[in-house]
Design a protein that fits this description.
Helices cover about 10% and strands about 40% of the residues. It is mostly beta strands. Strand 4 and strand 5 form a beta hairpin. The longest helix has 10 residues.
Length: about 170
């Protein structure tokens, strides 16, 4: 995912990249291709890059343990400053590049921001009911006949405390 910037005049430019996930070194849970739509604004002293990323993934639901496919979406913005002195300070959204730089490679940033789009909690749907704690049935597809009124004996002291408050 390389953008050649050496011959660009000042202004706005749009780029679309559709690459296989292996080309930017992404692996499971990502599948298929990754789509990047980039808007580049070049001026005399800087380049501002806005990118939108779309990628498909296959997760296992954290509640019901079923596999599901989802599209992850993320975006990011990076400002590239032209400078005769290259500043090595690591900043997420600001990079210093030489005046003689002829291209920008987006692969590392796209990979990083795609991985950042992976949620901490992976749910097949927002209202997933999960698995029955007694029999292990998926409560999204069927009801179980377990006695849900039965209280774990470890919680009985709290139950007594709750009843005393009433």
């Amino acid at each position: 995912m390389i953008i050649k910037i050496s011959n660009l005049s000042n202004g706005e430019y749009y780029y679309t990249f559709d690459k296989k996930i292996e080309e930017i070194e992404l692996s499971e849970p990502f599948i298929g291709n990754i789509l990047v739509e980039a808007k580049l604004q070049k001026s005399k002293r800087q380049i501002v890059l806005n990118a939108d990323i779309k990628a498909k993934v296959i997760f296992e639901c954290d509640r019901c343990d079923e596999k599901f496919e989802k599209e992850l979406i993320n975006d990011y913005k990076i400002v590239y400053y032209f400078s005769s002195e290259i500043n090595d300070e690591e900043q997420i959204d600001i990079k210093y590049i030489s005046i003689n730089t002829d291209k920008i490679d987006l692969s590392n940033e796209v990979r990083d921001y795609a991985q950042l789009a992976v949620p901490m909690k992976k749910l097949c749907k927002e209202d997933c009911k999960g698995l029955c704690v007694n029999c292990g049935k998926n409560l999204n597809s069927e009801n179980c006949k377990c006695n849900s009124k039965e209280i774990d004996p470890r919680w009985l002291p709290l139950e007594k405390l709750k009843n005393n408050i009433k």
